[in-house]
Amino acid sequence: MGLVLVGFFLGRKLPATFPPRLGQLLFWVGVPISIVAFLRQADLSAQIWIAPAIAYIAIFLGAFLAWLAIKGQAYLTHTTFQHPTQGSLILSAMVGNTGYIGFPVTLAMVGKDYFAWALFYDLLGTVFGAYGLGVALASRFGGGKANSWQMAKAIFINPALWSFGIGLWFRQVHLHPTVEFYLENLAWVAVALSLVLIGMRLSLLNSWHRLPQAGVSLAIKMVLVPLMVGLTLPFFGITGSPAKVIVLQMAMPPAFATMVLAETFNLDRELAVTSLAVGVMLLLLTLPVWLWLF
């Protein structure tokens, strides 16, 4: 909360060009360093490969429930949302911010030992869900056209994926304790800056006209999906701290990718922005509930 508030204050004071530059720095340098550093201490012996599978279940369930909500609204009120609004509502309900918010929350609430669960969920689940299925849906409901090459480029040029592979190999490399110390501290600095960046971006958002529709997508994304899928995790053999990590990742607010896709494919930008901003604030209320339940 403190770091996000610092970012919110700085976002009001610093030039508007600063948050995008900080975002680029974190995207290309900060997050990759964090992934490499925390992977060195993560436990990879468990069945962490099931994390991306759970991510896809959550993504498809969120999209399906959002589609049901759209159909239900049309049936009950005899009116229907415009296609761009439908697209933004579905995207906000299915893709979460499992990186910039999910990683710090996991590290703070569960610890570094289980970071790999969050990492696999994000990189092998959310990233492909956002820039794969998300692009296809945005193209379907918006005015833009899906470009297969751009979709593949968005996924495979993602430095987080490359640092994931490097981090797995780097686990075998012995480092001097001093180097290990500075590497870990750089990783924590990147985590802190990612939360500051969230606050900066929130300070620049000023659209609140789509609260009812945003409420529908957030109820699905941050309440129904984590609860429904979370209760089934024991059937997959996932309990304890790994289950907590998975639930926390599922319960993250909508991803910034939803705003990018809304801009690119002419979806409902106001709904995407409102869902993102309200979701971050709502997390302060839902996070203790998930920690208590799981």
- What order do the SSEs take from the amino end to the carboxyl end, as H and E? HHHHHHHHHHHHH
**β-sheet strand percentage:** under 5%
Choose one word for the global shape. Answer: globular
Biggest sheet: strands, sense, closure?
none
Low-confidence stretches: none
Distance between the termini: 22 Å
Nearest-integer average pLDDT: 89
Number of domains: 1
Question: What class, by secondary structure content?
Answer: mainly alpha
Keywords:
about 290 residues, mainly alpha, 13 helices, about 75% helix, about 0% strand, globular
Summarize the structure.
The chain is an all-alpha fold and 294 residues long.
List the helices and strands and how they pair.
Elements: H1 2-13, H2 18-39, H3 50-77, H4 83-94, H5 102-109, H6 115-141, H7 148-156, H8 159-170, H9 177-203, H10 211-230, H11 240-250, H12 256-264, H13 269-293
Helix pairs in contact: 1-9, 2-8, 2-9, 3-4, 3-6, 3-10, 4-6, 4-10, 4-13, 5-6, 6-7, 6-11, 6-12, 10-11, 10-13, 12-13
Q: How is this structure best described in words?
A:
- Helix 6 (115-141) runs parallel beside helix 12 (256-264) and helix 10 runs parallel beside helix 13 (269-293).
- With 294 residues, the chain is mainly α.
- The mean pLDDT is 89.
- The chain contains 13 helices and no strands.
